[in-house]
Design brief:
alpha/beta, 20 strands, 515 residues, 4-stranded mixed beta sheet, binds 4'-deoxy-4'-aminopyridoxal-5'-phosphate, single chain
Length: 515
């Protein structure tokens, strides 16, 4: 029986992290720095490259955001006023529309739906897309019904029902009955949800089924709508869409002829993708593929949900990472950095031509669109958009500096580091197969998918750098510092990585765990 309260919260995880020295308590945070409680009780500054799993682009406790929050609380501004006017939420969505126009050159507005977390934002997009699909299916069936009524009212007409496999001379009533039965059966099939291999969209009952990692997905598959997974290449995606398409049958009715004609059935609910796969190992979507996605979406009638939860809100040097790929979604989901590291919220943007107002009654949450989180998001957008978007340029510059430092380490240690990737302040360092490296410990932990944690423990204790591996690619370290990251911090990270590579090469297992 666990006795101390900390064993009742993530006790197993804590034990695992303590084995590699990651069981640290952080007692203060400012900018890109976290202060750990040292063994003697002193504060030990640590450079935060994990950045709250990517939510801290503006750093910890940004003074303007803190001041705004404190001011609101002191003034007694309400936090929860459901179903009343929500000026901050409107301001957020207005600003997001201005940014969409600037970065994508679109005129069409996007509606905003607020929720509490990234995974919930994804589920909002998928639920909305499913409502839209069901309404489109009902509209299609109503058209077919009207044509069927017209056919039944034209008894003398010649009937061609070969598309249904019926012989010439089949009575119209029989054709209509079979057609209605087949259409109803086709549209009763579960919706097709398509996501990319390596993708991550959350861990809730629905979003967990869109996350490719089988460890997170398979134990819960019976609970949620299943997804089809496609590779990030146009031919591969086309093959998946092709394999999932379905037809319904309509009737073309003229005065003397009735013909059964196939039409695409609206079976595709959504295609989900991240412009830069985060948990999948910091993998930017190939530019060629991104260009083809919208084409395939139009061809198959499959709306695109761009998950910018990790990559969006300035992280890659533009507000939307997808704008750098020219990939405009029908839905765009934002969360993480939009909350400025102080608030938990998500906004799901829905293209106006797809928006179904019915949805407003169908999805809500007590805490969604609350006054605190929407006011923080409005302030975050002010900071990002200030001075003609100066901050995006700083992100791009810091990102280049970080990327160059990482590439230099890889060039010096190609046997240990397989790849460095990323965009802006979203970077990944992938370690090579270490089974033949000098380090038995690293080889063993890598085989168990735990090498990244060993590396993280070493870098934390020896170089005061906090980072973690990505959620689904355990040999890739993620680097998502705040925009305040300094040259000194980047150099210290590079020094730490170089030292780690040398220990791995030399098989110095004692050095890896000397803390
Ligand atoms: N989508 C992406 C791309 C993410 O990176 C994450 C979180 N890592 C999520 C969805 C889920 O967000 P949350 O953890 O807030 O539910």
């Amino acid at each position: 029986m666990a006795e101390r309260s900390e064993e009742l919260v993530d006790g197993v995880l804590r034990k695992a992290t303590s084995e590699v020295g990651l069981d640290v308590e952080y007692v203060r945070a400012e900018g890109n720095t976290l202060f750990a409680r040292g063994r003697d009780g002193s504060e030990v500054p640590v450079s935060d490259y994990l950045g709250g799993f990517g939510a801290l682009l503006l750093g910890h406790n940004h003074p303007d955001l803190v001041a705004g929050l404190v001011d609101r609380l002191r003034r007694g501004a309400p936090v929860l006023t459901q179903l009343s006017l929500a000026p901050q939420a409107n301001e957020v969505v207005d600003t997001l529309n201005r940014v969409l126009r600037r970065e994508f050159g679109v005129d069409e507005p996007y509606f905003g739906v607020f929720a509490n977390s990234g995974a919930e934002g994804v589920e909002v997009a998928v639920k909305h897309a499913e409502l839209d699909r069901a309404l489109r299916a009902a509209e299609l069936l109503a058209e077919v019904d009207a044509n069927a009524d017209a056919a039944l009212a034209a008894p003398g007409a010649e009937v061609d029902a070969s598309a249904l496999g019926l012989p010439a001379g089949t009575p119209v009533a029989e054709v209509v009955a079979l057609l209605r039965e087949r259409n109803a059966a086709t549209l009763a099939d579960p919706p097709r949800l398509v996501a990319l291999e390596g993708g991550f969209h959350g861990k809730l009952m629905g979003s967990g089924q869109l996350t490719h990692n089988p460890d997170y997905r398979l134990p819960f598959t019976p609970l949620g709508a299943r997804a089809l997974f496609a590779p990030a290449d146009a031919d591969g995606l086309r093959a998946v869409l092709e394999g999932a398409r379905a037809t319904v049958h309509d009737l073309r009715v003229t005065a003397d002829r009735i013909e059964v004609v196939p039409r695409d059935a609206p079976v595709f609910c959504a295609l989900l993708l991240e412009p830069v796969q985060g948990e999948g190992g910091i993998v930017p979507l190939p530019a060629e593929f991104a260009k083809r996605v919208q084409e395939l979406s139009a061809e198959f009638g499959c709306p695109v949900v761009v998950d910018e939860i990790q990559s969006g809100a300035g992280r890659t040097g533009a507000f939307f990472a997808a704008s750098q790929l020219g990939l405009l979604g029908d839905y765009v989901v934002l969360s993480k950095s939009l909350g400025g590291g102080l608030a938990k919220l998500s906004v799901t943007l829905v293209r106006a031509s797809r928006y179904r107002a019915e949805f407003e009654m169908l999805h809500s949450s007590t805490f969604g669109k609350d006054g605190l989180s929407t006011s923080v998001a409005a302030a975050v957008l002010d900071l990002l958009e200030a001075d003609g978007g100066a901050l995006y340029r700083v992100v791009a510059e810091r990102g280049e500096r970080l990327g160059a430092a990482l590439r230099a380490v890889r060039d010096d240690h190609p046997d240990v580091i397989a790849d460095v990737r990323g965009l802006g302040l979203l970077r990944g360092v992938e370690f090579a197969d270490l089974s033949t490296s000098g380090s038995a410990l690293a080889a063993d932990l890598q085989a168990q998918g735990r090498f990244g944690f060993l590396a993280s423990g070493y870098l934390l204790h020896e170089h005061r750098v906090r980072l973690f591996p990505t959620g689904s690619a355990p040999s890739t370290l993620r680097l998502q510092p705040s925009v305040q990251v300094t040259d000194e911090e980047i150099d210290r990270l590079a020094t730490g990585l170089r030292a780690l590579c040398a220990l791995l090469r030399d098989g110095d297992d004692a050095g890896l765990t000397a803390f």
